[in-house]
């Protein structure tokens, strides 16, 4: 999951070297924290949050095989 979010984010932003993804796993839940440069926040979130929703939907679809809940948070 971590690699998927990282590849998606790096393809969207102007500063891919500043993209970091942290993965924390607890019980049946995986928390992915995506950090990008402040200039790239708009590109990762998108208009009305559409890109962020798409990223979360892709991760949720990929996680459906693992029977774990995946949460994606975006920070700057």
TrEMBL record:
Any single GO CC term annotated in Swiss-Prot or TrEMBL for this entry? cytoplasm
Read off the Pfam families from this record.
KH_KhpA-B
Q: What does this protein do?
A: A probable RNA chaperone. Forms a complex with KhpB which binds to cellular RNA and controls its expression. Plays a role in peptidoglycan (PG) homeostasis and cell length regulation.
Compartments where located: Cytoplasm
Fetch the SUPFAM superfamilies from UniProt. Answer: Prokaryotic type KH domain (KH-domain type II)
Name its species.
Butyribacter intestini
Question: Mostly located where?
Answer: cytoplasm
Put simply, this protein is called RNA-binding protein KhpA
Q: Which family does it belong to?
A: Belongs to the KhpA RNA-binding protein family.
């Amino acid at each position: 999951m971590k690699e998927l979010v990282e590849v998606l984010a790096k393809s969207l932003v102007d500063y891919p070297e500043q993209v970091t993804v942290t993965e924390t796993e607890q019980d049946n839940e995986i928390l992915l924290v995506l950090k990008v440069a402040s200039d790239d926040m708009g590109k990762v979130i998108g208009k009305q949050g559409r890109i962020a929703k798409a990223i979360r939907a892709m991760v949720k679809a990929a996680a459906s095989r693992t029977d774990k809940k995946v949460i994606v948070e975006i920070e700057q």
